[in-house]
Amino acid sequence: MLAQSIRLVSRASAPVLRRRFGTSMPRRDIIQDLYLKELKSYKAPPVKATDSVGQVKPWVAPLAPTPPVVEASAPADLSEYESQIVEVEGVATTAAEEESDVEDWFVVEPLETEHH
User: PANTHER family from the xrefs (predicted)?
Assistant: First the structure.
């Protein structure tokens, strides 16, 4: 009897290794199961070559560009251009032309000295 009491006391004082937080069994989601079942059983309709008719425009190769039209008066314009006088800046001109072209835009006035 003494041996039995010692065993009971030793079992009672021995640390019991148990989890101290509660757990619950995961519940099955019926809606999710039905959705996944239907999703797995879905077969997409086969794609046909005529499915795109009416949905997209048919491709047409672009037209070849047309060359630019040369005006009939091009030789006359060219000869007129060649006969024009070339105006070059910095070339000496006659005195009469210089006087007519030059204008005094900026006149420098003499500085006045300040009197104390």
Answer: ATP SYNTHASE SUBUNIT H, MITOCHONDRIAL (PTHR28207)
